[in-house]
Amino acid sequence: MMHCCVFPHTHNPAPIFGFDVIAGKNKITGCFYDYSPTSDDVHPMTEWFQHEVSKMAWHKPRALPEWAQRIFSPSMVAAGNVQDEEELDQIMAMARTGVDHYLATVGETNHTATDTSDRQNYYAQNQKQNPHTPKVMVSLGLSEDDVRVFIQECLFPEIA
User: Fold this and answer.
1) Could you give the CA distance from residue 76 to residue 124 in angstroms, rounded to a whole number?
2) Is-contact 18 34, C-beta < 8 A?
């Protein structure tokens, strides 16, 4: 299980970068990639993301639960049952390009928003509703108490 999120400063309306991979021994059971909006306005990074993912051909799309539909962009990539090496290479290249672009450009819109903490908290609150994250972590041998603290305070902390 790998979960990577990058939140912009709260004075920046840039989207939230997210890339998750859930895998077993022989296949990726879920892969999720998005630039999740923190504003109702379309951010330049979101336009870039929409253009980039429109080039991808995903053969195993996944239906998203309601909590995910509330926070992810319409261009969000969700793939499951990834066993083919070519498809895995495409996913990894996409993620590398996406995180490189995100980190290189996120600062360009610093100080152009007053406060996006409500939208960032909304994202965190909805991510915490994912029942699979704690189940996977417990199955890996972590205690339920440690998992709860990790998810609440480390993985998806909320801005006070």
Assistant:
1) 17
2) yes
What is the average pLDDT value for the chain, to the nearest integer? 91
Pairing of strands 28-36, 77-79: antiparallel
- d(CA 2, CA 92) in angstroms, rounded, equals 13
- Using CA atoms, how far apart are residues 15 and 12, in angstroms rounded to an integer? 9
Confidence (pLDDT) at 61: 61
Q: What confidence tens digit (pLDDT) does each residue in 26-58 have?
A: 788 888 999 999 998 999 999 999 999 988 766
Sign of CA dihedral 152, 156, 28, 73: positive
Q: Are 82 and 34 in contact (CB under 8 A)?
A: no
Amino acid at 11: H
| Alpha carbons 10 and 154: distance in angstroms, whole number | 18
3-state secondary structure of 23: strand
Q: What is the pTM of this model?
A: 0.92
Specify the CATH number of the domain 2-112.
Answer: 3.40.1500.20
Domain range annotation of the chain: 2-112
Q: Cβ–Cβ contacts within 10 Å for residue 60, how many?
A: 14
